[in-house]
């Protein structure tokens, strides 16, 4: 589709600004600011990136460090180690995130894997959703087919944090969670709906509506539950 | 206009689809964002849909998803215009537009050989109205000129064409959806056509 031959690379090493445009590879190493929309094939941001427009990446966006995007983020794959703030929506096929993500709009992905935390003001919509909570998370709504939310995984890279701040629970707060297979830990939600629901330790759910199976840990608190 | 709503729960039960499928289709923009109506109920937040339209859409997706990919399906269902042109012969041959309507067009605007999608859409509107007998050729001119001039402003957005008559005088207007509009009693709405639905219809016909 894209005539990549005519596209050049955008490189910012050290500190610099750009006004955006169409590129092949965009790489920011250090500190970079882009004042317009970017349409490119690959993106690499190591360090700090500040994008005032939309970022559209045909293939992979690789972000290490801290990046803020004023517009929407669109990519086939996104790999994050660090922190990303998006003012608009996120539309990706595959998101592998280590760190924190915050969006003001919806967050859409086919596969969404996160170790860390997030604040999503809209809907988190993913087919396969795997979250390991290392940080408090907040989202309005989660929807998908397979939803798995666990507290700190085996790889507790921030285990130290829990030693420094004991009692600081990493909880996920949501209004609605809907999926086919739902497994939750440390989750506080008003409504959870799905075919198969399994509530692990630390859940506080006001209303559970399930179709086939329902299991709950003895420490999970459930207000009302009913079959649909 | 669309007071009949269905809750997400009822919808899933009725159609037999899963949450996963519904969210996947939403992600692929097979179901427009503005069909998701959030309401507070005594059981907390619930999402509702315009009943007839969502059932119709899901039926369509279910029928077609075996033949083409979801992305292609999304293109087909989106209110964006297709980028293609068809010859006059093709249009008649595949029964996309009736010959009378094309003749009407050529007598008004002169002979053109290749019809771009936009023009085919206008012809489709005229075709529908002529066929239903709700409009004569004289009024067809008004609509054709009006659409050619104003419809491009609505590109990619959902809008509805209203055809009105009062005391034998007819007129038309375009309104963006969703919106509420009220007329005084003397005005009769002869026809209201949802342009996105027509585009969808046309895309399926052409494909």
- Distance from N terminus to C terminus of chain B (CA atoms, Å) equals 31 Å
**What gyration radius of chain A follows from the Cα positions, in whole Å?**
19 Å
Residues in helices of chain A, as a percent range? under 10%
Classify the secondary structure makeup of chain B into a structural class.
Answer: alpha+beta
Number of E strands of chain A: 15
Largest interchain contact: A-B, 23 and 15 residues
- Main sheet: strands, sense, barrel of chain A: 15 strands, parallel
**Spatial sequence of strands, sheet with the most strands of chain B:** 1-3-2
> How many β strands of chain B by DSSP?
8
| Overall pLDDT level of chain B | 81
Q: What fraction strand of chain B?
A: 15-25%
The shape of chain B, in one word, is globular
Output mean pLDDT of chain A: 88
Shape of chain A: elongated
Q: What is the string of SSEs of chain A from the N terminus onward?
A: EEEEEEEEEEEHEEEE
- Please, how many helices of chain A? 1
Number of helices of chain B: 9
Cα gyration radius of chain B (Å): 19 Å
What is the end-to-end distance of chain A? 46 Å
Write up this protein:
The complex is a heterodimer of chains A (228) and B (207). With 228 residues, chain A is mainly β. Helix content of chain A is 3%, strand content 71%. Chain A is built from one helix and 15 strands, in the order βββββββββββαββββ. Chain A has one helix spanning 159-164; strands spanning 10-18, 21-22, 25-34, 38-40, 42-51, 55-57, 60-69, 73-86, 90-103, 107-133, 137-151, 172-184, 187-199, 204-216, 221-227. Chain B is of the alpha+beta class and 207 residues long. Chain B is 47% helix and 21% strand. Chain B has helices at residues 8-15, 19-27, 51-64, 70-77, 88-93, 99-109, 117-132, 137-150, 195-206, and strands at 5-7, 37-41, 44-50, 85-87, 114-116, 159-166, 169-176, 188-194. Chain B has a three-stranded antiparallel sheet with strand order 1-3-2. At the A-B interface, β10, β11, β12, β13 and β14 of A face α1 and α2 of B.
């Amino acid at each position: 589709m894209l005539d990549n031959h005519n596209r050049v690379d955008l490189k910012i090493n050290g500190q610099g600004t750009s006004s955006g445009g169409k590129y092949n590879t965009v790489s920011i190493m250090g500190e970079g600011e882009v004042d317009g929309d970017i349409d490119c094939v690959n993106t690499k941001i190591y360090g700090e990136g500040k994008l005032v427009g939309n970022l559209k990446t045909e293939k992979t966006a690789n972000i290490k460090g801290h990046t803020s995007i004023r517009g929407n983020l669109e990519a086939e794959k996104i790999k994050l180690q660090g922190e990303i703030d998006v003012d608009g929506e996120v539309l990706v096929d595959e998101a592998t995130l280590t760190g924190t993500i915050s969006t003001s709009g919806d967050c859409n992905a086919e596969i969404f894997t996160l170790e860390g935390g997030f604040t999503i003001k809209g809907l988190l919509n993913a087919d396969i959703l795997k979250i390991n909570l290392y940080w408090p998370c907040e989202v309005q709504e989660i929807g998908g087919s397979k939803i798995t939310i666990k507290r700190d995984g085996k790889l507790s890279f921030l285990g130290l944090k829990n030693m420094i701040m004991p009692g600081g629970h990493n909880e996920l707060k949501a209004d609605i969670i809907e999926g086919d297979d739902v497994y939750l830990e440390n989750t506080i939600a008003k409504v959870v709906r799905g075919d198969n629901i399994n509530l692990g330790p630390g859940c506080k759910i006001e209303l559970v509506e399930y179709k086939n199976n329902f299991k709950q840990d003895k420490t999970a608190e459930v207000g009302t539950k009913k079959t649909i | 206009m669309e007071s009949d709503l269905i809750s997400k729960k009822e919808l899933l039960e009725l159609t037999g689809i899963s949450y996963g499928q519904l969210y996947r289709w939403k992600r692929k923009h097979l179901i427009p964002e503005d069909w998701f109506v959030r309401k507070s109920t005594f059981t907390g937040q619930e999402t509702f849909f315009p009943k007839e339209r969502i059932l119709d859409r899901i039926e369509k997706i279910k029928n077609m998803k075996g033949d083409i990919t979801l992305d292609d399906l999304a293109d087909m269902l989106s209110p964006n215009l297709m980028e293609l042109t068809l010859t006059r012969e093709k249009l008649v041959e595949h029964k996309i537009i009736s010959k009378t309507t094309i003749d009407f067009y050529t007598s008004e605007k002169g002979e053109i050989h290749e019809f771009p999608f936009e023009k085919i859409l206008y012809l489709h509107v005229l075709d529908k109205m002529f066929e239903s007998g709700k409009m004569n050729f004289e009024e067809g001119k008004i609509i054709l000129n009006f659409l050619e001039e104003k419809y491009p402003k609505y590109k990619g957005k959902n809008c509805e064409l209203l055809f009105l008559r009062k005391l034998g005088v007819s007129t038309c207007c375009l309104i963006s959806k969703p919106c509420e509009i009220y007329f005084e009693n003397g005005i009769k709405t002869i026809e209201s056509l949802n342009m996105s639905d027509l585009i969808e219809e046309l895309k399926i016909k052409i494909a």
